[in-house]
Specification:
about 280 residues, alpha+beta, SH3 type barrels, Alpha-Beta Plaits, 5-stranded antiparallel sheet, about 45% helix, MS_channel_C, transmembrane helix
Length: about 280
């Protein structure tokens, strides 16, 4: 027993009045191990339910992230106290240094604060489909400084959290699991309007990702300079893959237009050439 106490009291190194003992290292390792076990237990408790929808899963993930960061911050303070470093005195003595670091890492702190806002406010959740600066991204993880998303080309994108909180962001899946989309098309003058609307709606009906027939609608939107302008409105749950859905529906529209002799309009210009006349008679 005395030998164990001697080992724990063994001084690894000394700097001035400060000495780092083996007992301190053991306590630090125990604190880290206990923290990891605590975080693991919290995660198991939060995710113990298997039958949860995607929105609830995103909420649970956000709560877990917040708890994990708080636990590790407390652990960091305990480690410093175990090493004999007073956290309060350290913060008070390094106030000027922290101001300088804060100015240099202003954008990083901005991202961190934005991450805390996202995790607490939960306006953006895991698996939400966002449109940011014209890019459609499906959120996979929300971190304290950055979030990771997957774009429509299956490429992972690292997004600074401040970009989400300060930019205009369209959340396609915030309120409903289905979203309304539109396809615009112009046909030649002289086409039968009723036939065009019927074909547009039937083209949408044929696609399996279109949500509801009753909510699908073809409209005559206006009279263009070279075309009758129509719009097809439909709802789909496949928000993230809507590019492929629209492409498939357009292909069906083109095929049905060909079968019914309906011409997709293109700009036309009539040119009249006057014959040359003598300048003097």
């Amino acid at each position: 027993m005395q030998s164990l106490q001697n080992i724990l009291d063994y001084v690894i190194f000394t700097v001035g009045d400060y000495s780092l003992k083996v007992s301190m290292i053991v306590k630090i390792l125990l604190i880290i191990i206990i923290t990891r076990l605590l975080v693991y237990v919290i995660k198991r408790m939060l995710f113990r339910r298997t039958e949860v929808d995607e929105h609830e899963k995103g909420n649970i993930q956000a709560i877990y992230q917040i708890i994990r960061y708080i636990v590790w911050i407390i652990t960091f303070g305990l480690v410093l106290e175990t090493m004999g470093i007073k956290v309060t005195l350290l913060l008070a003595g390094s106030a000027a240094l922290l101001v300088g670091i804060g100015l240099g890492l202003q954008q990083t702190f901005n991202d961190v604060i934005s991450g805390i806002i996202l995790l607490t406010e939960r306006s953006i959740k895991i698996n939400d489909v966002l449109e940011i600066d014209g890019n459609v991204v499906k959120i996979q993880t929300i971190g304290i400084r950055t979030s990771k998303g997957l774009n429509t080309d299956d490429i992972s994108i690292i997004i600074p959290n401040s970009l989400i909180t300060t930019s205009k962001v369209i959340n396609w899946s915030h309120q409903n699991d289905k979203t309304r989309f539109r396809i615009d098309v112009g046909v030649a003058y002289g086409s039968n309007v009723d036939d065009v609307i019927r074909i547009l709606e039937e083209s949408a009906f044929e696609h399996p990702d279109v949500y509801d027939r009753e909510l699908t609608q073809g409209r005559l939107m206006g009279f263009g300079s070279s075309s009758l302008d129509f719009q097809l409105l439909f709802f789909s749950k496949n928000t993230f893959g809507i590019g492929s859905v629209k492409s498939d529906i357009r292909r069906i529209i083109v095929k049905k237009f060909d079968e019914n002799d309906i011409v997709i309009a293109f700009p036309q210009l009539d040119v009249y050439i006057k014959p040359n006349e003598p300048a003097f008679k």
